[in-house]
Specification:
- The chain has a single domain (about 10-95), classed as Alpha-Beta Plaits (2-Layer Sandwich).
- It contains four helices and four strands.
- The protein has helices spanning about 10-30, 45-50, 50-55, 80-85, and strands spanning about 35-40, 60-65, 70-75, 90-95.
- It has a four-stranded antiparallel β-sheet with strand order 2-3-1-4.
Length: about 100
């Protein structure tokens, strides 16, 4: 009889994929729709064209964000969360204090 148990690597991969889907759905539910947000590049390549892409998306850069390479932006973020995530950038709501609060 053969052992029908999947190898540990396959089980670990399934767990990681499941957690990734859960985290993506949680981030989508928490994504801001308007106001200030922080755009965080997740890779160095994602940060190289960040400013150009922000202007193309209609977002207004306000200040450097609290994380290296991140930018605090203002504007309507509805529908832009997935676009930015596909380009390797995470969009999260910006706290009022310390994230471009002195601007505009």
């Amino acid at each position: 009889m053969s052992n029908m148990r999947p190898p540990l690597n396959a089980v670990g991969l399934c767990i990681v994929q499941g957690l990734s889907v859960f985290v993506a759905l949680a981030l989508l539910a928490l994504a801001p729709t308007e106001g200030r947000a922080i755009v965080i590049p997740l890779t160095p390549a994602a940060g190289m064209t960040l400013m150009k892409d922000l202007y193309q998306e209609g977002l207004i850069p306000l200040d450097a964000g609290p994380i290296v390479g991140s930018i605090v932006v203002a504007g309507d973020h509805h529908g832009r969360f997935l676009n930015m995530l596909q380009r390797g950038r995470l969009v999260v709501a910006a706290p009022r204090a310390g994230c471009g609060a002195g601007l505009s």
